[in-house]
Design a protein that fits this description.
The protein is of the alpha/beta class. It is built from eight helices and twelve strands. 24% of the residues lie in helices and 20% in strands. Keywords: Hydrolase, Protease, Signal.
Length: 277
């Protein structure tokens, strides 16, 4: 997720067991970096490309390789084959990863630690938004030890962008990704964060945790601006959800870039969520 201001971001994977996502704000797409400055071998870049991801601006980070602005591919992601189709709503709409949460119906617990109170309030509001849809997948706020843990980190702008938050995809065993990291630096949300804005980012990150990719997956420029960028269709195909439109979706909660406001589920998001859960 990005915000169309002075910063930038990226999120998603197709062939994965777990992947780490980051939501940032900005109006620039990633620029190509030389391999010599990324620390990534040619063979690894080839593997990333073969999975359907762009190698533009790819770089080595702790735990794996950061691609497309905010997608962290682990070594497991690069070697684990996929057995599930990729889900989409038309050309520029809703997508899921190859892994989703299994053993439904079930309730996933969510806890918060090391963040200001406003982040906890926003987490509870994001949970309420999901539970109001009456899905077979529900969430429950707990004081500690949640299956998804929202934790804080403090990181200022760097290289023209700032990370708003990060999360990942479900595991191959069917559990949701276990952590959402939220930036507590004042440059991310201001000195007095807006609860609605925080809620929308957490709602977006929870979407990744249960298997959703960006809505404007085929053309990130739709919400981020700049040069059109395709996140990659991978080699697993795609299945359009019946009853959804074939045009771009301007209000989806899973758009790659944030508009800086409180964006929640639109009608097509609800169709996609009900289709999966």
């Amino acid at each position: 997720m990005k915000k169309k201001l002075l910063f930038r971001t990226g999120v998603a994977t197709v062939l994965l067991a777990t992947a780490l996502f980051a939501c940032k704000k900005g109006n620039q797409t990633a620029e190509v970096q030389a391999v010599s400055s990324t620390g990534i071998s040619a063979s690894t870049l080839k593997s990333i490309s073969e999975l359907g991801f762009s190698t533009t601006d790819a770089r080595k980070v702790n735990g794996g390789y950061l691609v497309e602005g905010d997608i962290l591919l682990t070594d497991e992601n690069l070697t684990t084959p996929s057995t599930s189709p990729n889900l989409r709503i038309a050309e520029e709409e809703q997508y899921r990863t190859t892994n989703v949460v299994k053993n439904l119906p079930r309730t996933v617990t969510v806890s918060v630690s090391n963040v200001p109170t406003v982040y906890a309030t926003a987490t509870q509001q994001a949970i309420a938004r999901y539970n109001a849809l009456n899905l077979t997948l529900k969430f429950q706020y707990v004081s500690s030890g949640g299956q998804i843990q929202v934790v804080g980190f403090n990181e200022g702008p760097s290289g023209g962008y700032i990370t708003l938050g990060s999360s990942g995809f479900p595991t191959s065993s069917g559990n949701p990704y276990s952590q959402i990291q939220m930036n507590t630096n004042s440059a991310a949300y201001g000195s007095n964060p807006n609860v609605g804005y925080l809620t929308s980012v957490l709602q977006h990150e929870m979407g990744h945790c249960i298997g959703f990719r960006h809505t404007d997956y085929f053309n990130r420029a739709y919400s981020c601006g700049g040069t059109a960028t395709n996140e990659g269709a991978s080699n697993v195909g795609a299945v359009r959800i019946p009853g959804t439109p074939s045009t771009a979706d301007a209000a989806s909660f899973m758009l790659a870039c944030s508009n800086g406001g409180d964006r929640t589920f639109n009608a097509n998001d609800k169709i996609a969520l009900n289709y999966l859960y």
